[in-house]
């Protein structure tokens, strides 16, 4: 591959790009800030900072939604600006390997990259679960069953891999964002306080799923809806656990459905090796135990699970033997 090769995981809440040139995974919030008349004024972590704080003439939005591109124009502007910031020299002729989520059409991403005007030389796709498997350090090309549960912001992707391919996989529209929403709704119902998504996310990330734990607490600021004034409120881990239980149950149920559909020959490997939990929500305290208890299968966790797919893309770019796991979109038409 040429000097400029990028491995792209276009997540709904954050974009992760591996750059071969700098041998680094760059990760930023996948957000853009748009000002009336001026267009995109900011992107990434800086745009996220403006989220829920910006005046009415500035709209802060996610260009991706449920694993696919919601705003191609802004995603293209973001990608171009992101690559220009993080790379030296020309981007002309760069090569891309893109992680393709289950149920998303590959041409969405080739159209996206081609439309940036970067004159890319080659755009390869790889199934996102296969990239996650490589990122876990597994040899996905072997004839053994591997179960990966990737819980991201908008989606949860549950997949069984074998021989370098996806044997079965299911994408459900449930993840960190729905969990944050459930926390905000419960606080509104129970306490009559309005809280923003960022505050709900803090509660989720800090308190996790710890039913019965009334000792761990977090103070937050919300708006008392009766008085219309901001006020402080203390939330326990037990309250958060109750608020998110239904969301987690739907993830666990989907895992069980996939296990039921798994051929017994591969099921043996999964029981032996365990389920691999990836995606940012794999960091949720107590989720691994919940899944292990419900399935009677051990659950493996890794460091920085949200970067697993990008680490897999890095291996595809660096290790020739994994090139045959990638494929090219039929419609590709290079400039
Ligand atoms: N410590 C934590 N506990 C619980 N959730 C966490 C933690 N850290 C991050 N998350 C959540 O992980 C999610 C982001 O994960 P990830 O980066 O894998 O998603 P994505 O790739 O952007 O989304 P998708 O896979 O849906 O396209 C967010 O909802 C974030 O709040």
From TrEMBL:
This is Cell shape-determining protein MreB. The lineage of its organism: Bacteria, Bacillati, Bacillota, Clostridia, Lachnospirales. Keywords: ATP-binding, Cell shape, Cytoplasm, Nucleotide-binding. It comes from the Bacteria. The gene is mreB. ATP binds at residues 201-204. Belongs to the FtsA/MreB family. Pfam families: MreB_Mbl (PF06723). The keyword Coiled coil does not apply. InterPro entries: ATPase_NBD, MreB, MreB_MamK-like. It is found in: Cytoplasm. Forms membrane-associated dynamic filaments that are essential for cell shape determination. Acts by regulating cell wall synthesis and cell elongation, and thus cell shape. A feedback loop between cell geometry and MreB localization may maintain elongated cell shape by targeting cell wall growth to regions of negative cell wall curvature. Forms polymers.
């Amino acid at each position: 591959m040429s000097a400029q090769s990028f491995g792209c995981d276009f997540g709904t809440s954050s974009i992760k790009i591996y750059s071969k040139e700098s041998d680094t995974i760059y990760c930023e919030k996948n957000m853009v800030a748009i000002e009336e008349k001026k267009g995109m004024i900011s992107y990434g972590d800086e745009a996220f900072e403006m989220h829920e704080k910006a005046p009415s003439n500035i709209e802060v939005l996610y260009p991706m939604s449920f694993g696919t591109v919601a705003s191609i124009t802004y995603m293209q502007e973001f990608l171009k600006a992101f690559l220009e910031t993080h790379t030296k020299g020309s981007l002309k002729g760069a090569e891309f390997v893109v992680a393709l989520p289950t149920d998303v059409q590959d041409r969405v991403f080739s159209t996206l990259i081609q439309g940036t005007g970067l004159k890319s030389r080659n755009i390869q796709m790889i199934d996102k679960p296969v990239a996650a498997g490589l990122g876990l350090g597994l040899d996905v090309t072997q004839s053994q069953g591997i179960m990966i549960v990737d819980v991201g912001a908008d989606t949860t992707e549950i997949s069984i891999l074998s021989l370098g391919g996806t044997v079965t996989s299911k994408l459900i529209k449930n993840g960190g964002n729905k969990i944050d929403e459930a926390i905000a709704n419960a606080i509104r119902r129970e306490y009559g306080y309005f809280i923003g998504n960022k505050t709900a996310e803090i509660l989720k990330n800090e308190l996790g799923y710890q039913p019965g734990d009334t000792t761990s607490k977090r103070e937050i600021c919300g708006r008392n809806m009766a008085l219309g004034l901001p006020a402080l409120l203390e939330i326990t881990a037990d309250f958060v656990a109750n608020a998110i239980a239904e969301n987690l149950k739907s993830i666990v149920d989907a895992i069980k459905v996939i296990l039921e559909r798994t051929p017994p020959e591969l099921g043996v490997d999964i029981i032996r090796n365990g389920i691999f939990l990836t995606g940012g929500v794999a960091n949720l305290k107590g989720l691994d135990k919940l899944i292990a208890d419900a399935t009677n299968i051990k659950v493996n966790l890794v460091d920085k699970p949200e970067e697993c797919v990008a680490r897999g893309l890095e291996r595809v770019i660096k290790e020739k033997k994994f090139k045959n796991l990638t494929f090219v979109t039929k419609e590709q038409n290079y400039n």
